[in-house]
Structures are given as C-alpha cells and as structure tokens.
Amino acid sequence: MKIFSKMKLQIAMLFLVLGTAMCPAQDKFFEKYETMDGVTVVSISPKMFQMMPDMETGGLDLGKLKGKIAGLQIISTERKEIRNQMKADFSKMVDISLYEELMRVKDEESNVTFYVLQDGDLIKEMLMLADEPTEFTFICLSGSFTMQEIMQTVESMSDAD
To answer: Residue ranges of the domains in the chain?
Structure first.
C-alpha cells in the first residue's frame, strides 16, 4: 500500500503542479460550486505558467511542458451533502463518454480514475476524479501536450527520489 500511496501522491502532485483556462466541458460544473462554502477551488491560468521562473518544482522537470499547458482547475469538498451532490452533478454535466479512461485505482479508501481527451497524439484534457469516503476531488488539466511529455515529466520526479 505504501508504494501505491506514493504513486498516487506523485500523480496528484503532477496534476497540481502542472496544470486556468477551464476545461470547456466542465464550465457549468465549476460555475455551480466555485463560490459555495465548504468547497475548495484552485484555478491556475496560462499566464501563471508563463511566469514560472524555472520549470522544476518538487522534483518535476516541467521544461518539456512549458507553453503547452493551458491551465489547471481543481474543485474539492469534504462536506458530505455537497460531495454527494457534486458526484451526481458531475455525472449529469460532464459527458465522460468523450474521454478515454487511462487508469483506475481502487483501494479500501478511494476510487481514483484518470481520463484523457485527445486530438490525434495531442492531449487536450486530462481529468482526475478522486472519490473517497470523506472527500470528492475533480482535477482538469488542459493544454496541448503528448503522453510522452507527461511520462518524461513523471519519470523526472521518480528520478529525483
């Protein structure tokens, strides 16, 4: 389990560090919850990524992705009533059939799913849904990058360990 937890943390960090232009399909979802009490929202714009002085953060070498990330949107809640409504609204508002599932990780405490929306070899959006007993988190990374660039970035973090 420790290996899985470390991997999950690294992948979550990749999403957090990388990548606001809102993911277009998710506009309504974010708009509904972004001002609600009990909901945490993080929005990183393309300009913020341009302002990053060096592209190495937390062991991640982001140089290969500079200029390719359009933004990152994160929304999360620990409040049970909001969490349940978020899960229901996500299913109604986001057409997940447009995305390809990359990976699903389930353990006793969480169910995490990663999705990708591609245009040829270019990834336009990566989504992460983390459904836990006490929290629901949705992350959307948008831009125009390849899977190879993402893998090289993740490998740079592994090499730093």
So the answer is: 15-160
